[in-house]
Design brief:
This protein is α/β, with parallel strands linked by helices. It has helices at 34-48, 71-81, 93-96, 100-112, 129-162, 190-205, 210-220, 242-249, 275-291, 294-298, 339-344, 356-371, 376-388, 399-407, 409-415, 418-428; strands at residues 15-22, 52-53, 58-61, 87-90, 116-119, 175-178, 185-188, 226-228, 234-236, 257-260, 263-266, 308-310, 317-326, 329-338, 354-355, 429-435, 440-445, 465-467.
Length: 468
């Protein structure tokens, strides 16, 4: 009788995942880049062991090894936890991580799912104590190298800034970065520099302050610096909002100097703004910062600041302006414009700007009509007397005197200062709504102020409403 020996079960194939990483994006657009070279070496090693290389790619181009926040690595970990991988293969240990703490946590995850780890150029066995010791030593040197590189980079940047050199980063509006034998240098971009000077001029001569500049920049379509990266990706070109205009106005780079932390050094690049202009801008920014800017932003006669709302979208309407060059001088035209349209464009709100002088004249006329209404002067006298009771109990408002003032409204209004007019308007008016689609303006008075003759009290709001 012949017996046939039992056949040994076939060995389970080792499913290998190749992980690759490169710290920068430089060269990744090439047909055969660093990631491809790492994978090619890993595939050759896997083939020599008789293992199986999984087709999925776990690549992280332009990702640091100092943390684990990498899309390719996260997909790798997800597949490990799903039981799809038996071995992770890398070109070098530091491709997986340069942090000893992160690597230890990764190894714990690998062990928990019975996944082995191989570095093609650094042979060791992670299942033995000696292999783990070797691995920790290698990682310690990798982390030391990373920290040493960071220190050297910081020292190099500080040294370059002290010498007034551009030490890397994205150039701001007004400058182009031109490579040279001694490193890249900042060169003035004439078209952008003109915009930078215009922003400073607008802020210094416009009493409406920062938002007026933002509105005018939006009207002109001006943005932050825009360019195309080496990989073809567009960068910058964002609207000049309040924060970006503030950064522009406080950027000492435009004076031909370079800042490093709290120190400022003379730069090698050409200045766009003279020191006097820059310092006047800083002084105005400091003044607005201390006082909230309310007086500075409204001294030129924005009677309805904070009162006007857009009837199309419900947003507030900002007091802004435009400048038109003509001959030897420039003329400024004031408007009330929807803040949403200013920030997001006409697609966000179709409301057109309204000439400020026309709107303010209409509101002033509405107030004049209100003062001529029956019972209005008695009510104003009562409210004024009540308001002054705690401050001047000896003072009594005479309705007859108010009647004389009301009859002479126009000359009295003309004799008022800007601040006095603003005080009167804000004391009487609660809000002004401009409906561009309907072509109307409605004025709602504060509670207790009688409506103009021929107008009914607004039932939905506490004040009275007059419509144009």
């Amino acid at each position: 009788m012949t017996t046939t020996p039992a056949t040994a079960p076939a060995a389970k194939p080792v499913r290998c995942a190749v992980y690759t990483r490169k710290s920068t994006e430089e060269g990744l657009s090439q047909a055969f880049n660093s990631l491809d070279a790492q994978r090619d070496s890993a595939e050759l090693y896997i083939k020599s062991q008789g293992w199986i290389c999984l087709p999925d790619r776990y690549d992280d181009g332009g990702c640091t090894g100092a943390n684990t926040d990498r899309p390719g690595l996260q997909r790798l970990l997800a597949d490990i936890k799903a039981g799809r991988i038996d071995c992770v293969v890398v070109y070098k240990v530091d491709r997986l991580s340069r942090s000893l703490a992160d690597f230890s946590r990764l190894m714990e995850t690998f062990d928990a799912h019975k996944v082995s780890f191989v570095a093609v150029t650094q042979h060791f066995n992670t299942t033995s104590s000696m292999g783990r010791l070797t691995l920790n030593i290698l990682l310690s040197f990798a982390q030391f190298e990373r920290e040493l590189i960071s220190e050297r980079t910081r020292d190099k940047i500080a040294g370059a800034r002290r010498q007034g050199k551009w030490a890397g980063g994205r150039p701001g509006l007004g400058y182009d970065l031109v490579p040279g034998p001694g490193g890249s240098k900042l060169v003035v971009n004439a078209k952008e520099a003109a915009r930078v000077r215009a922003v400073f001029e607008m802020y210094l001569r416009d009493d409406a302050g920062m938002m007026a500049v933002v509105g005018e920049c939006a009207r002109r379509g001006w943005t932050t610096k825009a360019w195309t990266a080496r990989n073809g990706k567009p960068i910058g070109g964002r609207p000049l909002n309040k924060d970006r205009v503030y950064h522009l106005l406080t950027n000492v780079l435009y004076t031909g100097r370079i800042r490093h932390k709290d120190a400022v050094y003379p730069g090698e690049h050409e200045a766009i703004i003279d020191d006097d202009t820059f310092e006047r801008a800083q002084a105005k920014l400091r003044l607005n910062g201390r006082s909230g800017g309310s007086q500075m932003r409204n001294v030129h006669g924005a009677l309805l600041k904070g009162l006007v709302r857009c009837g199309s979208c419900g947003s507030s309407m900002t007091h802004t302006f435009s400048v038109r060059e003509g001959g030897k001088s420039a003329r400024r035209y004031r408007y009330y414009a929807c803040s949403r349209a200013l920030k997001q464009g006409r697609d966000a709100c179709p409301c057109r700007s309204l000439p400020a002088a026309d709107l303010e004249k209409f509101v002033a006329g509405t107030i004049r009509d209100t003062l001529s209404g029956d019972g209005t002067l008695d009510e104003i006298a009562r409210r004024a007397t009540a308001l002054l009771a705690g401050q001047r109990p000896d003072l009594v408002i005479d309705p007859d005197e108010l009647l004389g003032a009301a009859e002479a409204f126009d000359p009295v209004w003309d004799a008022m200062t800007v601040r006095e007019r603003i005080t009167v308007v804000h004391a009487l008016v609660e809000r002004v709504v401009y409906d561009d689609a309907a072509g109307t303006v409605s004025v709602t008075f504060r509670e207790g102020t009688p409506a103009p003759q021929g107008q009914n009290q607004d039932q939905d709001q506490p004040g009275a409403e007059a419509a144009a």
